[in-house]
Each structure stands twice: as structure tokens, then as C-alpha cells.
Amino acid sequence: MLTRMSIATVVVVLCASYAVAEEQLGVTVYPGATYDQVMTTVLKKTPSIEGAAYRTDASLAEVAEFYRKHGLLFLRLGNPTKEGARFKQTDTGVDVIIQNPWKDPHTGATMKGTLIMIIQNRE
């Protein structure tokens, strides 16, 4: 019984985490990306920001191409750098920031994988 309840709790938390980006902010989360509670908490500590963070083993180029195909505006001239890219959904003002590698905010350690932060400034 406890195991079923634990699994159900995890499913609810994961669904809610995708809901932040997809329903509240209107941006699709990269397929297969996992919710990052630590980075989301860091984002939420900034009073003017609403958003969520996700991680994936996909390359920065693959994630950038996904958001480019979804019609988000690439905010830098030229190609994404090897370490980061930024996109904006112009009709809602939501930003998608992609980094690989990235730094853990608590330890300063360089983390592998691609970090996806989907954020919007609160008015």
C-alpha cells in the first residue's frame, strides 16, 4: 500500500512540474526532460520570476533545435554557443534558457547534461 502511494505521489509531482511550464507559461517541455527541483527552487527564490527547471541528456544543439522548431525566437545572432542558448516566446514573454554544461548553485560543481530553464518575469 505504501509503495503504491509513493508511486502515485511521484506521478502527481511530475505532472504538476510539467504543468508549470506547459499550462501556466505556455511552453512545451523538451520531451524526456526531467524536472529539477533544486534549480526550480533557486528560480523561485527570485521574487520577480515564475518558472521551472528541467534536465536532459540531449545535447544543447538538439534542445535548441526543438525550441527553434516550436517557433520560439532565438535571442542571439548566429548559432547557439557551445554552452548556452536563449529563446523567447514573443506572445507571452516567456524565456527558455538552455545551458550545457552548467554550475550547481550550491556547490559550484560543473554539471553534465543540458539544463532547461523556462521562466517568465512576474508583473
Overview of this structure, please?
The chain has one domain. 33% of the residues lie in helices and 29% in strands. The chain has helices at residues 2-24, 37-44, 60-69, and strands at residues 34-35, 49-56, 73-74, 84-89, 94-99, 102-103, 110-111, 114-121. The protein has a 6-stranded antiparallel beta sheet. Strands 6-7 form a two-stranded antiparallel ribbon.
Q: What topology does this entry show?
A:
Layout: H1 2-24, E1 34-35, H2 37-44, E2 49-56, H3 60-69, E3 73-74, E4 84-89, E5 94-99, E6 102-103, E7 110-111, E8 114-121
Antiparallel strand pairs: 1-2, 2-8, 3-4, 4-5, 5-8, 6-7
Which parts are unreliable, with pLDDT below 50 for 5 consecutive residues or more?
Answer: 4-16
Shape: globular
- Put simply, the count of helices is 3
Give the topology string: H per helix, E per strand. HEHEHEEEEEE
Mean pLDDT: 80
Structural class: alpha+beta
Q: Total strand count, please?
A: 8
Oligomeric state as shown: single chain
* Major sheet characteristics: 6 strands, antiparallel
In short, what is this structure?
By secondary structure, the protein is of the alpha+beta class. 33% of the residues lie in helices and 29% in strands.
What labels describe this entry?
about 120 residues, alpha+beta, 6-stranded antiparallel β-sheet, about 35% helix, about 30% strand
